[in-house]
Automatic annotation (TrEMBL):
This is Archaeal Type IV pilin N-terminal domain-containing protein. The lineage of its organism: Archaea, Methanobacteriati, Methanobacteriota, Stenosarchaea group, Halobacteria. Pfam families: Pilin_N. Residues 1-67 form the Archaeal Type IV pilin N-terminal domain. It comes from Haloarcula japonica (strain ATCC 49778 / DSM 6131 / JCM 7785 / NBRC 101032 / NCIMB 13157 / TR-1). It comes from the Archaea. InterPro entries: Pilin_N_archaeal.
Amino acid sequence: MVAITVLLAATAATFFLDFGSGNLGQNAPQAAFSFDYDAGSPDSLTIEHRSGDSVQAGHLYITVSGASGANGQHDFTSIDGTLADSSKITAGSQVTFSGASDLSDATVTLNWKSPDSGKSIQLASWEAP
């Protein structure tokens, strides 16, 4: 009986004190994104917010690897110069990345950075077909 009480208390404490959040500070957004690749000259990759929470553009960035010419980290505000850090990315919003001449072997991850802790979490990823 004592063991059950301790187990229930520990479960309640974990839930109410949010010990399992990974210490991201602010909760990560719950959102779905899609990717649309266009092989051209240069290649482009359109990232669309499909559904879920709105996200400030200044908290989103992509990481590109395996591309010729654009590997590394790119903030949403640098991908689309019209976006301010405080711009809201909502369902239907699109950003097109075309900073690489060849994305045919690339992997792109979309990440959210917590404004509170500075830690990041991956929201979506895309691998070249």
